[in-house]
Amino acid sequence: MLHSMRETYTRARETSTSRLLQPVRMLAAVAAVALAGPVFAEDTEAALRAAIARHSDGKVVANSVAATPVPGVFEIVSGKDVFYVDRTGRYAFLDGRMVDMTEKRDLTQARLEALERIRFEALPLNAAIKTVRGTGARRLAVFEDPACPVCRALQANLAALDDVTIYTFTYPVIARESIPAAVSAWCAPDTDRIHRWKGYMAGTTPPDHIDPGCEQAMETVHEIVRFGEAHGIRNTPTLFLADGRRIVGAMPGDELAAALDTVARP
After folding, report:
1. Which of 211, 153, 154 is CA-nearest to residue 186?
2. How does pLDDT run across 79-99, given as a tens digit for each residue?
3. From CA 169, how far away is CA 193, in angstroms rounded?
4. Mean of the pLDDT values across residues 30-41?
5. Band (42; pLDDT cuts 50, 70, 90)
6. Cα–Cα nearest to 229, from 143, 168, 152
7. Per-residue buried b or exposed e for 228-241, using 16+ beta carbons within 10 Å of the residue's own CB
8. Phi/psi at 49 (nearest 5 deg)?
């Protein structure tokens, strides 16, 4: 009897203990899963550190790697810089831009440049003052304003180009005084337009009024401005190559000539 009771007590104690241990075992299982997380994270962190070093040729060191609320996107701290990468560590999100660290290429900038291209034939070439030098094989469109110092500085580089056709757009958007200058150039005879305009670009004082009889010239200038506004030409100088690429601001003469050479000649 005692033996039987002892067995019964033992079984009951084991059953009771087993029941008591069930929550503990569940907690242990949860803890095991939780502990497995950092192990995976450490593997991911090590892989990302190595990938970033590889894709940046060792120039970027990931001091810390952390997950973000966005699946597959990780926070990287490098020195005092913070940026984000995909799980391959090749593509970085930096200052709102996506960068391919392997090709050292700003993918966002490449996309913006593609969006800013204008088919050269879509430019209002009938509203441009045309200058042909040499063979005229290379084509360039320039939107400029006499009140723009950078435009004036660019004139020497434009004058040095050969075998080029330059389409000059009188684009008076910097100062109101430039409007009479643009209209005056278009109101001149065909053979005198470019010389009059280049005189204003060189510093000749433009007229302070628009002469009577220049209504067609005014309409031409309005056409240029409307086109520029419709196509986001907000700065001068703005240049367009024959392949539609947009160049905003000054460009050294040798770089401009090289850019023209990269475009297939017709």
Report:
1. 211
2. 999 999 999 999 999 888 999
3. 12
4. 35
5. low
6. 143
7. beebebebbbbbbb
8. -55, -45
Residue 4 has pLDDT above 50, yes or no: no
Question: For residue 189, is the peptide bond before it cis, meaning its omega torsion is within 30 degrees of 0?
Answer: no
**Tell me, what's the pLDDT at 264?**
52
SS3 percent helix, strand, coil of the chain, rounded to 5, is 50, 20, 30
Those residues whose C-beta lies under 8 Å from the C-beta of residue 245, and which sit 6 or more positions away, are 113, 117, 259, 263
DSSP string, 21-39: HHHHHHHHHHHHHHHHHHH
Contact 140, 167 (CB under 8 A): yes
216-262 pLDDT, tens digit per residue, is: 999 999 999 999 999 999 999 999 999 999 999 988 999 999 999 98
Q: What is the pTM of this model?
A: 0.67
Residue with token string 């033992």: 10
The whole-angstrom separation of Cα 175 and Cα 127 is: 20
The secondary element (H helix, E strand) that includes residue 96 is none
Q: Which domains can be identified in the chain, with CATH numbers?
A: 36-116 (3.10.450), 118-261 (3.40.30.10)
CA distance 85 to 76: 7
